[in-house]
Design a protein that fits this description.
The complex is a heterodimer of chains A (312) and B (220). Chain A has 312 residues and is α+β, with helices and mostly antiparallel strands. Chain A has 2 domains: 4-20 and 63-149 and 279-293; 150-273, no CATH class. Chain A contains 8 helices and 9 strands. By secondary structure, chain B is α/β, with parallel strands linked by helices. In chain B, strand 1, helix 1 and strand 2 form a beta-alpha-beta unit. The chains are: A alpha+beta (312), B alpha/beta (220). At the A-B interface, helix 3, helix 4, strand 4 and helix 5 of A face helix 6, helix 7 and helix 8 of B. Bound molecules: iron/sulfur cluster (SF4).
Chain lengths: 312, 220
């Protein structure tokens, strides 16, 4: 049986890990970007970032003081048994967020959008966000937290089928250039592109593509996988590196997620997951045991639902 | 290799004059944080500057620390990261006159004309944090919290913090006393490539405001 206490413990622990320890895949990604960077200033910035990750892990302090907006992604196995109900899980997540904010410490970033009032603990109206997903034939619960920073680096546009790949490229360039100048989006970043769906799903797909897939992961559709690599190349050919300095390091990786959309449109969203690409996952097994990892494994075949779901 | 400098605070006019764009700087002494919350209270709300601020620090850091109040009343400072400075542009002239601040530290620099019109005439230079995310390295450089003002009124992120720092860095020198800026120079170099990136890519069917600034234009 999975109890609420276990859920809270696991959530608290991933809050700490996400804030402090850079995921291995992203670190390796940054290192390989650094090897290709020929410009002195850009190279110095990346080296400093790598030192910063080491300092964070050594001192157990957050890698970036803007600890972003903490949020959760929960995947519940069909056969998972837990005693507190779904609202119990959500309560555990709120409590873990408040405790971790004080203890790590995280910056209490969350304020009311109009009155700028806060509870000093990252908990408030509609926050932290909790997104749900389900998995057949599983008896575990996966809890992922993402602390995405960034007032910058995200945009949406309605393109049309005739705009084609050119339209996608233009929009990606527009977004990366506008937020890359002066390094507002803290590149080199994992770039996520959402294509299709309606406006809200398009935004969600792009964000999840940036935050919930690891460096090196490719979309299962081979043509989309190819497009991911091509667009990453394009991003790195802008001639811009970290902080908007001359360089070649814009994207550490680029992920595309798609959803069926209106026949007349091709909505697109672009998201950048910054130099502090903070994510951590806990799997809570049926016996209450907890395993930690940095790959959310969010986009399972069931999650993408790439077949209709019954025999045609 | 980039040039490396260690600077004692409050920084003397001579030391500031010697800083070169693109040099790496580490600081020793006291820096204070202030951003829109503090600026508004003092410049528009009639609050007084903390007594003795000018004599203890001439460095304004655009920063919100990850800090937490401990049971014994002290503060645990975790990470320390700059926030984007361009948003504070409209406060800066008055603020610099009032406080005699000579070094601004932040994320991303200022609009290009501000260096010439606001900073240079007041002998102020801008240092930028590196990569922006170096919160842990900067956190290491904070030895102590000297004082904190308006914590209750403004919260942790917006309060004015006075940090005693040692080997606090790295920062990069963005601007000089003539009002030149490394960001602006690098931006111009990057811009030389940009047009070519769009070569051969057809225009989208529907434009949007921003691509034209004329709100009377149709976008088709
Ligand atoms: S965007 Fe930059 S400042 Fe913000 S959380 Fe990411 S690394 Fe930190």
């Amino acid at each position: 049986m999975i109890t609420n206490n276990i859920i809270e413990d696991a959530s608290y622990e991933i809050m700490r890990r996400a804030a402090i320890d850079i995921p291995e895949d992203y670190l390796n990604g940054i290192k390989s970007v650094a090897k290709k960077e020929k410009e002195q200033l850009s190279g110095f910035v990346i080296e400093s970032m790598i030192e910063n990750y080491e300092a964070a892990t050594e001192d157990r302090r957050p890698m970036c003081a803007d600890t972003g907006l903490p949020r959760y992604y929960i995947k519940v196995g069909d056969k998972a048994v837990f005693d507190g109900g779904f609202t119990g899980i959500e309560r555990a997540l709120r409590s873990a967020t408040a405790r971790a904010t004080h203890d790590v410490p995280l910056r209490p970033n969350r304020v009311h959008p109009l009155w700028r009032t806060e509870h000093n603990n990252n908990v408030g109206i509609n926050s932290p966000e909790v997104e749900w997903s389900f998995e057949p034939d599983a008896n575990w619960i996966d809890i992922t937290t993402v602390h995405k920073g960034g007032l910058f680096g995200t945009d949406y546009r309605m393109l049309f089928p005739g705009d084609g790949i050119d339209g996608i490229k233009r929009f990606l360039l527009d977004t990366l250039i506008s937020f890359g100048k002066r390094g507002l989006c803290c590149q080199p970043a994992i770039v996520g592109i959402g294509l299709g769906g309606s406006k809200d799903t398009c935004m969600q797909l792009g964000k999840q593509a940036a935050c919930l897939r690891v460096v090196g992961d490719r979309n299962p559709d081979p043509k989309i996988a190819e497009l991911e690599l091509e667009l990453m190349e394009l991003g790195n050919s802008i001639g811009m590196g970290p902080m908007g300095f001359v360089g070649s390091s814009m994207a550490v990786d680029l992920h595309i997620e798609v959803g069926y959309t209106h026949t007349g449109g091709m909505p697109i969203s672009v998201h950048t997951f910054c130099l502090s690409s903070r994510r951590a996952t806990a799997r809570i097994h049926a016996d209450g045991g907890i395993e930690y990892r940095t790959d959310p494994k969010w986009f399972t075949p069931y999650h993408r639902r790439d077949t209709i779901g019954w025999e045609e | 290799m980039l040039n490396k400098v260690s600077l004692d605070l409050p920084a003397s006019p001579e030391a500031i004059a010697e800083l070169q764009m693109g040099s790496i700087v580490y600081l020793n002494g006291i820096v204070y944080t202030a951003r829109e919350g503090v600026y508004d209270r003092i410049l528009n709300g009639g609050d007084e500057l903390p007594a003795g601020l000018a004599s203890s620090s001439n460095v304004n850091f655009h920063c919100s620390p990850a800090a937490a109040l401990q049971d014994d009343g002290s503060f645990n400072i975790g990470g320390v990261t700059a926030t984007a400075s361009f948003r504070f542009s409209k406060y800066l002239a008055d603020w610099l006159d009032l406080t005699q601040t000579k070094i601004l530290i932040g994320k991303g620099g200022l609009p290009e004309k501000d260096y010439k019109e606001i900073l240079a005439p007041r002998s102020v230079v801008y240092l930028t944090t590196v990569g922006y995310g170096t919160g842990a390295l900067l956190g290491r450089g904070v030895e102590d919290v000297e004082a904190v003002h308006w914590l209750d009124e403004l919260g942790i992120a917006q309060a004015m913090w006075l940090f005693r720092v040692k080997d606090f860095g790295p920062f990069l020198v963005d601007s000089d006393l003539e009002g030149n800026s490394l960001f602006a120079q690098q931006g111009k170099l990057v811009n030389e490539n940009i047009e070519a990136l769009y070569d051969g890519l057809k225009e989208p069917a529907l434009h949007r405001y921003g691509e034209t600034r004329n709100r009377k234009d149709e976008l088709m």
